[in-house]
Amino acid sequence: MTDNAANSGHEAANPTASRQQDTPGALDGVRVLDLSRVLAGPWSTQILADLGAEVIKIERPGAGDDTRSWGPPFVQRQDGSCDAAYYFVANRNKRSVALDISQPEGQAAVRQLAASAHVLVENFKVGGLAAYGLDYDSLKAINPALVYCSVTGFGQSGPYAPRAGYDFLIQGMSGLMSITGQPDGGPGAEPVKVGVATADLSAGLYATIGILAALRHAERTGEGQHLDISLLDCQVSLLANQAQNYLASGQPPRRLGNAHPNVVPYQVFAVADGLLILAVGNDGQFQRFCAEAGVPELARDPRYASNAARVENRDALIATLRPLLAARTGADWIACLEAAGVPCGPINTLDEVFADPHIRARNMAITMPLDEGGGTLPLVANPLRLSRTPPSYRMPPPGLGEHTLEVLAQIERNPAQYLTTDSE
Question: Within a domain: residue 249?
């Protein structure tokens, strides 16, 4: 199957992704030097790689990216080496080079690679790379057009800048956990983190947006720049309407469980055989829901006729709706409400997600060759759908230092001089 077909949405589910790129990607010709690890930085560089950029991942000899050990589960290669599944989520389409940047030889190699790079991504502590001569100012002197992206927990300035930042801490400090979880006074009432590393992932996405903007500027002017991406900044920005609600009202939002602060009814309800999400987004949908539920008079009740009124009278309305929804099965509700144009749906487990006919039709799970020994690797696909330059899947996530000699041979006739004992 070609890469275009893999992104068309018309092929069989779970396709085997090609190792070759049939047509140039949108970022073909862009070289990215990836000095980041764990998730936020690698998430960004994998997006760039999927879009055609050449990404060279610099790793510590003998250890590599921290996430290689963040298991179980682990994925074993044909040569017997194994890495945690976590590592595979953000490192495809990259080449791994093992370099000890604490040594002069490793620093020299990174500088030579940076001289021909368009982008460098790093997530060291603030000032951490200056000791090695690999900070923005040092590399700018070598390559003035370099787009240098620093991803940290708290940014390059401010009182918290020196601190290490982890996703869990950021979810708490950003206010996200204060609005996530069951309401005070109810069973299980406490702030709850989101089940994936949303602060890391949002920082990775914002980093990608910033990099693309900076590349456009460099293309026009020949001038690079330093991007300062903070996990805390990014997560605060993703508070969106909740943050704006506070800024407009002065009242900190409270935890509502699965309910919505601005829209009612927009939450989880118990049905006869489980749980159902009902997401009524406007008054017309509420009228149609009431008709399907056999209570059309509710939509005419002044307490519920408008969304603002429903928010004001939330408790009374939800108490009325609970027994109505509990009287029928989830499948029954989904069938009738979908036909009526009322948004609703199930709460799927991940096995149900990847068995879902729509997810399968969209080819959101792919399979890549893991190594030359014939092993295969299932991966989540890139969700971008570009009609002319779709993402491609050229190389599986690399083994530690798999491409060290290959990459260094491009900058030095004797690449062995850069290698420490641990990386050979």
Answer: no
pTM of this structure: 0.89
Residue 348 lies in a domain: no
CA–CA separation, 134 and 136 (whole Å): 7
55 plus 198 within the same structural domain = yes
DSSP collapsed to 3 states, 108-170: HHHHHHHHCCCEEEECCCCCCCHHHCCCHHHHHHHCCCCEEEEEECCCCCCCCCCCCCCHHHH
pLDDT in tens, 175-206: 999 999 999 988 889 999 999 999 999 999 99
Q: Are strands 54-59 and 94-98 parallel, antiparallel or unpaired?
A: parallel
Residue-wise pLDDT tens digits, 387-401 = 999 999 999 999 999
Query: 138 and 29 in one domain?
Result: yes
| CA 43 distance to own-chain centroid | 6
Catalytic residue numbers? 200
- pLDDT at site 6: 35
Domain, as residue range, for 47: 3-238+366-423
